[in-house]
Amino acid sequence: MAQRVVVTLSDDIDGGEAEETVTFSLDGKSYEIDLNPANAEKLRTALAPYVSAGRKQTNTGKRGKAPVAYHHTSLAPDPAAVRAWARSHRMEVPARGRIPKKVYEAFHAAS
Q1: What pLDDT was estimated at residue 42?
Q2: d(Cα 96, Cα 79) in Å, to the nearest integer?
Q3: What distance lies between CA 54 and its chain's CA centroid?
Q4: Which of 17, 41, 42, 58 is the 20 to 30 A CA-CA neighbour of 2?
């Protein structure tokens, strides 16, 4: 059985059917408003003198910091290498998950 979901936007000014979401900012706060074409045009017309007289701001520094790629900086040995070493020395080690401390200690002692 298929299910179909229909989302209908309502104009936030007059309650009718909206066709677009308009985003704008004022005093450092961003807003979204769902509007029909007539109300969207009224908003744009009302803001036009201020937009044309204003200076455009860039978004640099306004949003959160860009995500930083994770880099492994630990001095711990590669778990795959520890597992391989442990198996070659007939030690029990899980194929996945945490490697027991005694296995790491034996690996370091042998290195």
Answers
A1: 97
A2: 10
A3: 31
A4: 17
Q: Are 34 and 9 in contact (CB under 8 A)?
A: yes
CA–CA gap between residue 110 and residue 84 (Å, rounded): 14
Residues 6+ apart with CB under 8 A from 12: 18, 33, 34, 35
Query: pLDDT tens, 9-51?
Result: 899 999 999 999 999 999 989 999 999 999 999 999 999 999 9
Contact present, 16 and 36 (Cβ < 8 Å): yes
Q: Letter for the amino acid at 65?
A: K
**Is-contact 39 29, C-beta < 8 A?**
no
Distance from the Cα of residue 4 to its chain's centroid: 27
What residue has token string 């007289």?
A: 53
Q: Say which CATH architecture domain 1-54 belongs to.
A: 2-Layer Sandwich (3.30)
Global pTM value: 0.49
Q: Residue ranges per domain, the chain?
A: 1-54, 79-110
| Domain 79-110 in CATH 4.10.320.10 | yes
